[in-house]
Amino acid sequence: xxxxxxxxxxxxxxxxxxxxxxxxxxxxxxxxxxxxxxxxxxxxxxxxxxxxxxxxxxxxxxxxxxxxxxxxx
Length: 73
Known about the structure:
Strands 1-2 form a two-stranded antiparallel sheet. It has helices at 6-11, 19-25, 45-71; strands at 30-32, 38-40. 55% of the residues lie in helices and 8% in strands. The protein is elongated.
């Protein structure tokens, strides 16, 4: 959190994920901060995102192959 007080923390605009939503999908990338709030450990997201990307690439390849067979190519 750095030197943020509660007042500046809640006034600042930030972009991120909602911990409760992440928890339902990949709870292992959450951590609890010193205030008891759940935070997303963004540094742990890279392998999760790479795995998801690999799955999507494989799905696209499979669908392309299937489409080519259906088109008779």
